[in-house]
Amino acid sequence: MSPGTERSLVVLRFGAEGARPKAYLQASLHADEIPAMLVLNHLAERLREAAADGAMRGEVVAVPAANPVGLAQFVQGRAMGRFALAGSGNFNRHFPHLADALTDEIATRLGGDAAQNVAVVREAMRDALDALEPADEVAFLRHALMSLAYDADIALDLHCDSEAVLHVFLGTPLWPDAADLSAQLGSRATLLATDSGGHPFDEAVGGPWWSLAERYPQHPIPPACLSATVEFRGRGDVGEAMAAADADNLFRFLQRRGVVEGDPGPVPAALCEATPLEGVDMIRSPVAGVIAYEKAPGERVAADEVVAVIVDPLGADFDTARVALRSRCDGVLFGRSADRLARPGKVVCKIAGRQALPDRHAGALLTD
After folding, report:
1. pLDDT band at 2 (very low <50, low <70, confident <90, very high)
2. What CA–CA distance (Å, rounded) separates 13 from 27?
3. Nearest in space to 234 (alpha carbons), one of 282, 156, 306, 296
4. pLDDT tens, 50-59?
5. CA distances (Å), origin 271, targets 10, 174, 235, 291
6. Could you give the 3-state DSSP secondary structure of residue 120?
7. How far apart are alpha carbons 365 and 97 in whole angstroms?
8. Which of 105, 287, 332, 346 ranks highest by number of CB atoms within 10 Å?
9. Among 186, 222, 191, 200, residue whose Cα is nearest residue 149
10. Domain positions in the chain
């Protein structure tokens, strides 16, 4: 993108190309979310051993650091990997809308056989990707990642939050089929939506299937890609033992789904129920000040319970200098900000509730 610079994307492949099921995993699309890179590093070692033992039944494509652009971004010594500093926005937004790129000509090739329809749709998505001409390096990165993942049976985008327990985002049409993923990983909040907003990676690879099924109800089109975003706790939750345990769970999931041979053991008991992303209370601070938390990630809270207090350190009166933030729902506090300084409008906590909240609407469910 400028003289003397070059980007590279490392791609690891296990199993025979074209073998099924195909699993695609990428880590740290938000390049300053480090736990996922270590988890995928451990998983890659298990996959190398499986390949050496002849245990690869399907194909695994893994990208251990999915964002070389963001990895190079530092401001005053701090990694800044969520947004492209050159102006292209959030790295996990604005992926290609493959369903929109497919014309109604595809309907002439669809029929009554679901498996054949899957093959037809994958071929059409490949052609649509081949026709795209990315305009800048971030668009090129999105295109490269989509080209690796569009035909996967399983596509897992591995992230982390600020301070959080492990949680998972899934397309609503994938539930309850994906319940084994949530349970195996030990998810403490599993959040469902068909349109979360901004077209992130998981919806870009999984969403075309349910969009096309809705567009052509006369043809059987299954949700042929189990796509999910997995949030491996918080940014500071980086350690060999934790990453190894998470990699073990991913490996067992791949075994259970037939990608790798072997006995994964029984599915663990689920630690949470699936709840709508529309039911997440994004608790925002109305004022500026110091955040003093009353609740930690993983704790259950009741509606109207105080989860944090915002303190104006310059307030002359001790009591009036404090503003309590309360939950609007019963649920699990699954994430909170590691930054203890609030500004008006800042999302301080996230609570997974069972019922949709009146101000939460499809297409605008994520923080930027």
Report:
1. confident
2. 15
3. 296
4. 999 999 999 9
5. 34, 18, 22, 29
6. helix
7. 18
8. 332
9. 200
10. 12-272, 277-353
HSE-CB for 168 with a 13 A CA cutoff: 27
pLDDT tens for residues 241-264? 999 999 999 999 999 999 999 999
Whole-structure pTM value: 0.97
Q: How far apart are CA 23 and CA 20, in angstroms?
A: 8
Question: Quick one: DSSP state of residue 269?
Answer: P
**Nearest-CA neighbor of 50 among 12, 10, 15?**
15
Looking at domain 12-272, its CATH class is alpha beta
Which residues, including other chains, have CB under 8 Å from residue 105's CB and lie 6 or more apart? Answer: none
Confidence of residue 1 (pLDDT cuts 50, 70, 90): confident
Q: Which two tokens stand for residue 115?
A: 């498996």
Inter-axis angle of helices 201-215 and 137-149, nearest 10 = 60
Residue 74 CA: distances (Å) to CA of 71, 81, 83, 87, 200? 8, 8, 11, 15, 23
Dump pLDDT digits (tens) for 280-335: 999 999 999 999 999 999 999 999 999 999 999 999 999 999 999 999 999 999 99
CB 39 within 8 A of CB 158: yes
Q: What is the pLDDT of residues 97-137, one digit of tens each?
A: 999 999 889 999 999 999 999 999 999 999 999 999 999 99
Q: What length is written for the chain?
A: 368
Task: Give the CATH number of domain 277-353.
Answer: 2.40.50.100
Cα 44 to Cα 350: distance, rounded to the nearest angstrom: 32
**Per the structure block, which two tokens stand in for 120?**
């037809």
